[in-house]
Automatic annotation (TrEMBL):
Belongs to the D-glutamate cyclase family. It comes from the Eukaryota. This is D-glutamate cyclase, mitochondrial. It is found in: Mitochondrion matrix. GO terms for cellular component: mitochondrial matrix. Residues 273-587 form the D-glutamate cyclase-like C-terminal domain. The lineage of its organism: Eukaryota, Metazoa, Chordata, Craniata, Vertebrata. It catalyses: D-glutamate = 5-oxo-D-proline + H2O. Its main location: mitochondrion. D-glutamate cyclase that converts D-glutamate to 5-oxo-D-proline. It comes from Oncorhynchus mykiss (Rainbow trout). InterPro entries: D-Glu_cyclase, GLUCM_C, Putative_hydro-lyase. Keywords: Lyase, Mitochondrion, Transit peptide. GO terms for molecular function: D-glutamate cyclase activity. GO terms for biological process: glutamate metabolic process.
Length: 594
């Protein structure tokens, strides 16, 4: 059977028509404009032959001064007023439901013989004139294994709201109870279903209520106008999308449940970065610790974050002062620089004994152009049982976290016996503050994610792969970090993991599919401005920046921790062409996504 496109309808006085059209163009996801009529025009020739908007919807809502006063099956009695009114026809997600069914995706509201659930969200549309309102969304339960297929079919139908704007916990959109929709009917989730949300044309109803015109009409939710136009999602489901137009979904959090989206092309680019940073120059067998897509999922999570806390510092040279090594700080600075360029708040937490030294290093890094703005430096000693909670959350309230992502890069991690070991099995606990407590506490706070970057398995966060560390790494049963992060990124050298993360974040910033999802479909999708692009590109790691950073560290007495595995040592600084080659590879792979 042929599937025809449906349309939502908003009818307003002609004096409001230009502002409402601008409102639609400013918010194309909830209000994809199919046709604007002339004043007093009953038909819509591009959409349907012989149409009459006064009778062609099963039911209409009548608004006076923004208040719903009645529901009627015909607007014939308002023909006189309609002479001075303009009809807007807006795309509708009902159009793709039949296509989803044909593709083998269960559509629960159809199965349950009810209307789809529609919710008023906490997301404010881009306002124009008197039109200022929240976005309305539809919710459809989708089996997790069907999420990619659903995203791909609906992404290619922008005139039917396009792909989902959120997948996961309804509370992210300000929806407290999915069993109580503002419009439509409750729809029950099946076993293994994930709630997926699409922008909805009922946003037009909210716009009418916000504007409070003397008289206005809309379709009644669920009672749309049926066009003569064949549903474009039918063609989308039968064609193979180009990699740049093929969304893939990834779980980035279980508490709260949250999925993110990126194009297939971008996913492959980040997987290429992950392969590059996983080269094993020391031939220590680190590939045994590798978990695919940890870099991708960590960076997707970071892209959704607003405030990030980074920690680094591995006092492997326990007989020297300072005992730190050069692996870690350059990678941390590289991550921080890119996060800053992406307008994230960033702070670094380090050992109290090293705070002053790290402040001087940060000042020099700014002077040398390694990073644009100094990152605030913090310390954490864990003086009381609830210190970590108060450090992470305002007033110790787990509903008010200061940070939504913690990143540890080459940070000594606590072993199962409570001690901290370098790769030779020497206990360095006396040099380490209990920053691990921040990670263990973060695991109990919804909305805070964590990442660990390491190259041996004794680093903070690598507890996620501790069994592999114990089995495959030298001294693994002793040194393995016991503290797990949500994402554990394995790199040949931890700094490389930081460089790879910076490049992956940059690639995501240039992915239209991801950016639309990140911004919940609000506003017009725009490519980055030239200034934005230049700022993002300037923040990326480079050979020159690494050389400057390593030189700064050496000036402050920091020694390499990788002597003997990465090549020559000059004036206390270990530096091997492998480092330069890797950064060049990363930048080359990243530049292909510009």
């Amino acid at each position: 059977a042929v599937v025809y496109q449906t349309a939502n309808v908003v009818i307003l006085h002609k004096s409001l028509a230009d502002d409402f059209e601008a409102f639609c163009h400013a918010n194309p996801s909830p209000l994809p404009l199919l046709y604007r009529s002339q004043p007093g025009e009953w038909g819509c020739p591009p959409l349907a032959a012989d149409a009459d908007i006064r009778v062609d919807c099963p039911q209409y809502c009548v608004f006076k001064d923004g208040l719903l006063v009645s529901r009627v099956s015909s607007l014939m009695s308002y023909s006189g007023q309609l002479q001075d009114m303009v009809s807007f026809y807006l795309g509708c997600s009902f159009s793709f439901e039949r296509t989803l069914q044909k593709a083998g995706v269960p559509v629960r509201n159809v199965e349950q013989n009810c209307n789809v659930s529609m919710f008023r969200t906490s997301l404010q549309c881009r306002g124009v004139g008197q039109f200022q309102c929240p976005m309305v969304v539809t919710m459809r339960p989708v089996p997790e294994e069907k999420l990619d297929l659903v995203a791909q079919i609906t992404h290619l139908t922008p005139l039917a709201h396009g792909g989902p704007i959120h997948i996961g916990d309804p509370a992210v959109l300000g929806i407290q109870d999915v069993s109580r929709p503002e419009y439509g009917d409750p729809v029950a989730l099946g076993p293994g279903d994930v709630p997926a949300f699409w922008a909805c044309g009922v946003t037009g109803v909210e716009a009418v209520q916000s504007c409070k015109p003397p008289l206005a009409f809309t379709h009644s939710p669920g009672c749309m106008f049926l066009t003569d136009r064949q549903d474009s999602s039918v063609f989308a489901s039968t064609s193979t999308p180009e990699p740049d137009q093929c969304p893939l979904t990834f779980s980035i959090s279980q508490q709260p449940l949250h999925f993110s989206v990126a194009s297939k092309a971008v996913v492959q680019s980040i997987r290429d970065l992950e392969k590059i940073i996983g080269e094993d120059p020391g031939e220590r067998g680190i590939r045994a610790l590798f978990v695919q897509d940890e870099l991708l999922r960590s960076c997707l999570s970071l892209s959704h974050s607003s405030s990030v806390l980074i920690t680094t510092g591995f006092p492997t040279h326990y007989t020297h002062n300072p005992p730190e090594e050069t692996d870690g700080p350059p990678g941390a600075i590289a991550i921080a620089a890119t996060l800053q360029a992406l307008q994230k708040e960033v702070a670094i937490v380090t050992d109290h004994r090293a705070l002053e030294m790290n402040q001087r290093i940060m000042e020099d890094a700014v002077k040398k152009g390694v990073i644009k703005t100094a990152v605030p430096l913090l310390s954490y000693q864990g003086n009381s049982p609830d210190s970590a909670l108060y450090f992470l959350c305002h007033n110790g309230d787990h509903k008010k976290p200061r940070f939504d992502h913690l990143v540890a890069i080459e940070r000594s991690g606590r072993a199962s016996d409570g001690n901290y070991y370098n790769m030779r099995g020497v206990n360095i606990k006396h040099l380490v503050d209990p920053i691990d407590d921040l990670f263990t506490t973060a695991s109990t706070i919804p909305g805070i994610s964590t990442t660990g970057i390491g190259d041996g398995g004794n680093e903070l966060g690598m507890g996620k792969v501790k069994e592999a560390v114990r089995e495959h790494m030298p001294n693994g049963s002793l040194i393995a970090c016991d503290v797990a992060a949500d994402f554990a990124i394995t790199a040949g050298v931890s700094n490389w993991g930081g460089y790879g993360m910076a490049c992956a974040l940059y690639i995501l910033s240039l992915c239209p599919i991801h950016q639309r999802y990140l911004h919940k479909g609000l506003g017009q999708p725009h490519p980055p401005t030239q200034d934005q692009h230049q700022a993002w590109a300037a923040s990326l790691p480079s050979v020159a920046k690494e050389e400057e950073m390593l030189s700064i560290l050496v000036q402050h007495g920091v020694r390499s921790g990788k002597t003997g595995t990465l090549g020559m040592e000059v004036d206390g600084l270990t530096f091997h062409p492998t480092h330069s080659d890797l950064i060049i590879k990363l930048r080359d792979r990243t530049s292909q996504r510009k």
